[in-house]
Design goal:
Chain lengths: 73, 289
């Protein structure tokens, strides 16, 4: 079972990329299913600040909130 | 394990493999470490979070290149390593093996007994005059300043050798008076890491260095010493993180001044292989292109 903690846009992107790959999906496959562009998905997976603001995670950390994820692979 | 791939242990735990690729050295997380610590864990270093995908060559070489010995020992390593490939970091790491500093051990756990206990004065002399005893630091500052690797035990300071987990002490430059250390000595006593940081600061003072108010900060399982709000050049704190519990240990030395090694004063020759994550220079006095 894969797991991790999400403290930044990069952490979230890393988790999404990992689970997508385990599921055997390419970025194109997932983007098509979600009806988004592959570029948008790529930016999510690389933690680009244009989409996910790092300040959001700073707020979360400041308040002592812990975000964790796990998948069944 | 061959000279094309190196197992990396952190405090006796296998955490990753460094592999030679056509593009350079590349780091992959060991599955067991990934399962234990989780994706994105910074148990090894903040710059190389654990991942199910191999890390970039740049990030890998920036960190592991910093583990190599420096100065005369690097020159000897270059001379003695029979590898003529353009990028021979993996070969150098394999050859350096036990002699890298910190909690990381390559290519396997070969921790031996510590040497003779040094007096505080002898330890201070080592820091103040590191010639002939240079070792890499495994930080972004490798090659920027001479470093001394010593280990602190409850008995006192020892010369770290043969892969024993050590404290990295950045020695005092003629111009930049700095003493920064990161302790890696494994110990069940939770109060010990902060105490060793305090010992480092005291040693810095004994050796004539100047330090500033420091925070000993947890980052994953590591504790880092971070200068805090003491001058224009202090950026060390930027790359530090609080622990999940938000616990911080403060060690305060009053009336101090510090310039971190991240600052790059003009006129200081740089030595070493890596600068800001890029393969920069080989050989002595390393004129950085």
């Amino acid at each position: 079972m894969a797991h991790g903690r999400i403290r930044s846009p990069e952490d979230l992107g890393r988790a999404i990329r990992h689970v997508r790959r385990v599921a055997g999906l390419t970025q194109r496959d997932l983007a098509d299913q979600l009806q988004v562009t592959q570029r948008w998905l790529s930016e999510i997976e690389t933690g680009k600040p244009k989409i996910l603001d790092a300040r959001l995670f700073a707020v979360i950390a400041m308040l002592g909130i812990t975000l964790e994820w796990q998948s069944d692979d | 394990m061959t000279s094309d791939s190196i197992d990396v242990d952190l405090r006796g735990e296998h955490v990753c493999v460094v592999t030679r690729t056509p593009a350079g050295a590349q780091w992959s997380t060991a599955p067991a470490a990934l399962a234990k610590h989780g994706l994105g864990s910074t148990v090894l270093t903040l710059g190389l979070p654990l991942d199910s995908s191999p890390a970039s060559v740049e990030a890998t070489e920036a960190f592991f290149g910093g583990l190599l010995p420096e100065g005369p020992r690097l020159e000897a390593l270059l001379r003695d390593t029979p590898d003529t490939s353009r990028d021979k970091l993996v070969s150098l790491l394999y050859a350096a093996g036990r002699d890298v500093t910190g909690g990381i051990v390559l290519p396997g756990p070969t921790i031996t007994a510590l040497g003779t206990v040094l007096t505080e004065e002898e330890a201070a002399l080592e820091v103040a005059n590191p010639r002939g005893y240079l070792a890499g630091g495994g930080s972004g500052m490798s090659g920027m300043q001479p470093k001394v690797a010593m280990a602190r035990s409850p008995e006192g300071w020892h010369a770290a050798r043969d892969g024993h987990p050590s404290s990295h002490i950045i020695g005092f430059h003629d111009i930049v008076h700095t003493c920064v250390a990161t302790s890696f000595i494994p110990c069940d006593d939770e109060t010990w890491p902060p105490r060793i940081e305090k010992h480092v600061i005291v040693l810095a003072i004994v050796a004539g260095g100047r330090v500033c108010r420091m925070s000993v900060t947890e980052a994953a399982t590591r504790l880092n010493l971070s200068p805090a709000s003491c001058g224009r050049n202090v950026r060390f704190a930027e790359c530090r993180a609080r622990s999940a519990r938000g616990r911080r240990h403060h060690v305060t030395i009053k009336d101090m001044n510090v310039t971190t090694a991240h600052d790059e004063p003009a006129g200081i020759p740089r030595r070493g292989w890596f600068r800001h994550g890029r393969h920069a220079a080989q050989g002595r006095d390393g004129a950085v292109p």
